[in-house]
Amino acid sequence: LKSEFEKSDVTENNKFQSAFKRFYGLDNIKINEDFKNKYFKLFEKYRNHTAINFEEVFIDLLRIKSFEGNDSLIFSFVSKLICTLDDTIPIYDKEVCDVFSFTEPIDVDIAMEIDILLDQFDIIKNHFNEIINRNLLPVSLKLFDEKFQDNKLSLIKKLDFIFWSFGKLKVLEDHIDQIKVLN
Fold first, then answer.
1. How far, in Å, are 15, 42, 62, 134, 174 from residue 128 at the CA level?
2. Residue 36 burial (CB < 10 Å; 0-12/13-18/19+)?
3. Which of 51, 61, 112, 171 has the fewest Cβ atoms within 10 angstroms?
4. Alpha helices in 25-109, H assignment, sequence order
5. pLDDT digits (tens, 9 = 90+) for 129-153
6. Could you say which DSSP state residue 28 is in?
7. Contact predicate 91/80, CB 8 Å
8. What pTM was estimated for this model as a whole?
9. pLDDT beyond 90 at 110
């Protein structure tokens, strides 16, 4: 995604858009093509920014009408946009939130929701930085590099994948426990 992003204007790069939508599941949620087109325009808007403000991008996404879903999905796509621009930024999504046992802010105004989501995101960033600084997952990172030889991913991107995968497994495990209860 990163190399495709760097090649050209992503509003016209169908290969990037297709790969991004598949990789991040943009086609798996109920949003229309207008939202997707405007979303990719935001990549170009923020392409050359050296410091990107999450709140600003979040507000930009909220302004795009015809999004059917909840704001946490929007925040997830804020982080996915920003981490594509800057690979030192981790991804905030449902699977990673499940690992951290975060809950979705409910019945709060938009300003409070943004504050809660940004606080949760800071916790993720701080934990990832702690893992890197203290070398807390050397075996997992070594296994990652053995599985994906010659990858050029930053440590943050490797942790993204590890935590996302663990979140997927955690959800599956929780689901299996629910099935056992039904039997």
1. 30, 26, 28, 10, 24
2. middle
3. 51
4. 33-46, 54-63, 71-85, 94-99
5. 999 999 999 999 999 999 999 998 9
6. G
7. yes
8. 0.83
9. no
